[in-house]
């Protein structure tokens, strides 16, 4: 339709056109050959698409050879356009809309008529001699007809995808995009040609890119798994792209205004232009980086570019990072709870009101919020309403009594009087109000919508579970401290019970033998021993809960064994079977207490006149102290699960802490207490303690090594 450029060597744009169109022709022909046996993947439009690709390949070759202005290129372009119009019609036929939509066929017939008119005009101009003025009119008419074809084709493509059912869009997405790429480029090309009153060779040389885009999108449409290929730009990328676009529009506008001022400014044009550029640059530097501008951009993009306000993946990751922060520099849990919720709405500050035992939420933590001097709490009726309804309150509506239900109690005055307070979010855990978060007004004022409410409720439930878990841990720690205190008292009662038994026995014997000097001497020894035990008990009370004992020192184990045996001197059942001279690092008093308890338990479990043996030997670098009886014995289940469990006893009136205390004392001396017992046979308690290694032994060991 347009004249060729003057002859001569091919310029750079001719080379670009040849390369791009040649590549596009190869791509189109390759896809047509590959698609031929797989045409069913495109439904009823498969065969038409193959034909259209072949026509496009031939047309691209002619364009690359710059045959514009000849009859073959016109015929090929008309054939290409008609083939793609047929593809559009067959795509309409896939879901039956070619018959249900009455305008489809008339529009297609009209476009076919326009294409034939284009062909007729080109034949007329090429075959009939006409003057230059008529030829120019014919060329302009040809451009207008091309524009009409591209606009009509784009309207059909839009209706093809926009009017399709939700399920049908999955298969139409890529073919529609491919056709849109082709016709949008054609629209821009012929628009420029019409405005410039000539053929834009530079832009026309790039038509091969549009053809390659068409082929690429059709290849995606014909492949398996295409439904999973969706363009999903992240919100961060979209925000940055939109920001760059806004900056570009601003710069273009600033340049246009500056140029206009230079034309109309007269003698002071340069000064006016310079002043304008200075003021505009200052405004840009102040406005573009501001938080308010960024907030406005995010709201605009979210509202118009995305189906949902929030990127839920990004929100969840940010929430997890905020609430899961640990370490010495981490903010307290209350502040992290407020920040995690405030980040959702872009609030710059917030308060955390935690429910007390009376169900009244009161101030427990704050984040970036200062200036609350008086009491900050919610009335029970208002807190109860928030709990029952899981109601997220917008305080501006409450201040203006706008859209608030009559049954909603009035918010406290300290909240309504503070202009920073914007919204109340209840944190509900198992239908119980754990806390309430007060959010400050964001920089960009807006109303909360259904998506805000849903996300705030979900995050509120998660935060409520964190707060409830933290409260449970604190309660458990407090219960542990009480348990430790009760355990101390139980140990004290156990030792006092033993001392009370000794005093009772001493008092009864004193009534019978007080006049005897030997008894009085023995009584003094007993009283001195009981006094030492009471002092040791007082010292031990300060150690419970710390895992330590009074003092570790070198002691003679054989002396400890003989001292313990002396306490049972009046009982012939207790016998010292073997006693080697050994030294160990231990606590003398604690070891005496352990052995006394083990011997007494062995006596209680043994029948009268049944012997109980105490032995002390060295074994494998350790002192092995055994207490053996032939009493009733214990089952493996009892030894494994109940013997060393505090407050579990088989004795009537027993506290059940003796064995537990003995094991803990041995462990504190870096030793070990083992048990070997058989029901009906007896028990063996083995205390192992590390021996004290002398310097001579250490020297001999090093020489041997």
Automatic annotation (TrEMBL):
Keywords: Kinase, Membrane, Phosphoprotein, Transferase, Transmembrane, Transmembrane helix. It comes from the Bacteria. SMART domains: HATPase_c. It catalyses: ATP + protein L-histidine = ADP + protein N-phospho-L-histidine. Its EC number is 2.7.13.3. Residues 491-693 form the Histidine kinase domain. One of its GO terms (molecular function) is phosphorelay sensor kinase activity. The chain crosses the membrane at residues 12-35, 42-62, 74-92, 104-125, 137-162, 174-197, 203-222, 242-262, 268-288. It holds the Pfam family HATPase_c. This is histidine kinase. The lineage of its organism: Bacteria, Pseudomonadati, Pseudomonadota, Alphaproteobacteria, Sphingomonadales.
